[in-house]
Amino acid sequence: MGKAAAVNGQGWGDRFLTAFSWACAAVLVTALTLIIGFLVVKGGGRLNGELVFGSTPVVDALLLRRQVFDGLFPAMAGTLMLVCLAMAVALPLGLATGIYLAEYARGTVKLIFSLMVDILAGIPSIVVGLFGFSITISLHHFFNARIFPCLMISGLALGFLVLPYIVKTTQAALEGLPLQVRLTAPGLGASRLENLFYVLLPAALSDIVSGIVLALGRCAEDTAVIMLTGVVATAGVPKSLFSGFEALPFYIYYIASEYTDPSELGTGYGAALILLILCTGLFVLAHWIRYHIEQKMKYRY
Question: Structure pTM?
Answer without folding.
Answer: 0.81
